[in-house]
Design a protein that fits this description.
The chain has 369 residues and is mostly beta strands. The chain contains two helices and 23 strands.
């Protein structure tokens, strides 16, 4: 469906004056492989269909459209009569008024022998532990490759021989996950269990997790997995000097893989699991959300459960990695002792139960006459 956005100017625009607006947006699911099936080592070509007119709700007096492609191997250019310079195309300038909503169809087909990575679902959990001073992150991915399908059965021998000279391929064979400096204890598992084909490098300035799936993910194939890691909570949490015990948590809304070809996300669910006893939860983020829910998450030795903030977003790209998520909450001083008191009472209950059972007389003897 068509969406309209209202733009509020910082100040009233005086008559005959001008203001330049820069608008950035991402369009998902617009690239299609053509041909739709290729051999295992063939080049992959994508077709991009678009309008040379910028979408607008107003009449446009003058405009020009520039299209920049990642390669010069462009066999087909249809419509628009553009001016080409290498891998760039210029449509226009159009000096005649263009009515609102007008379209001028055009398409280009270009070589792109890399995977089209799409996550149909990403579940991201951020768990805050005040007692351990730890911020635990876990991300669960359901990935698919939207590239060209294989025209023949997968040849493992042929795939193994290509690993020596590493040619371009439309298959997804590895993922690179940049983490925050100081991250530790990473893990990589899938539906079968632990995946040993991973490498973690960390130093004072950076941390990087390199993942290699169990098999190459060609067009139409799917792969689901989970990754997780720990971090020092002090790098993300700030304590306010307020009677209510205010805390401010700032974390990335999205982390995970960062690839040159990019990743798109169909649905993203982010859960921020706060310590038990946290109240007055508020948040702020630049990411457009479709649903916000405050719920209770229960884990080991919890009493009333942990306050959890669940945020849901649709149709995101990996550029969202740089968008911060700020969560504020109150955590009274007495709430920090809820867990130790629960553990103490639990241990005491075990000892009392054991003592009571030990006092029972369960011996078999002759009853007194």
């Amino acid at each position: 469906p068509t969406q309209f956005f209202r733009i509020t100017l910082p100040q009233t625009l005086s008559p005959k004056s001008q203001l330049t607006l820069s608008i950035s947006y991402h369009i998902l699911s617009t690239l299609n492989p053509l041909p739709s099936k290729i051999a295992q080592q063939d080049k992959q070509y994508l077709i991009y269909t678009f309008s040379t007119y910028t979408p607008s709700a107003y009449t446009t007096l003058k405009q020009k459209t520039k299209l920049k492609l990642p390669t010069t191997d462009i066999p087909d250019v249809i419509g628009g009569s553009p001016d080409r310079q290498g891998s760039s195309f210029t449509y226009g300038p159009y000096n005649d008024p263009i009515p609102a909503g007008a379209l001028e169809p055009a398409s280009v087909r270009y070589e792109f022998t890399r995977p089209l990575i799409h996550a149909t679902l990403l579940e991201r959990d951020i768990e805050v532990s005040h007692w351990g001073g730890n911020l635990a992150s876990e991300e669960r991915y359901w990935l698919t490759n939207r590239g060209a399908h294989l025209s023949e059965n997968f040849n493992r021998v042929q795939w193994a021989t290509t690993q020596y000279y590493n040619p371009p391929t439309s298959a997804l064979r590895s993922l690179n996950v940049p983490l925050k400096p100081g991250s530790l204890n990473p893990y990589f598992t899938d539906d079968i269990g632990n995946v040993s084909t991973s490498r973690f490098r960390s130093n004072r300035n950076e941390a990087n997790l390199e993942l290699k799936p169990r098999y190459p993910v060609f067009g139409g194939w799917k792969y689901s997995f989970r990754i997780g890691w720990d971090a020092d909570l002090r790098s993300f949490l700030r304590v306010l000097k307020t009677p209510e015990g205010g805390h401010v948590l700032q974390v990335p809304f999205l982390e995970g893989p960062k690839m040159g070809e990019g990743i798109s996300y169909g649905k993203v669910e982010v859960r921020v699991i706060l310590p038990e006893g946290a109240t007055n939860v508020k948040f702020e983020t630049e990411v457009p959300l479709v649903a916000v829910e405050e719920m209770v998450h229960r884990t080991f030795m919890d009493t009333v459960g942990r306050t959890t903030l669940k945020l849901t977003a649709m149709n995101l790209v990996d550029a969202t990695r740089d968008k911060p998520l700020i969560v504020t909450y109150d955590y009274p001083f007495i709430a920090a002792f809820r867990k130790p008191i629960t553990i103490f009472l639990g241990v005491m209950a075990v000892f009392v139960t054991a003592w009571g059972i030990g006092r029972l007389d369960v011996s078999i003897g002759k009853q007194p006459e």
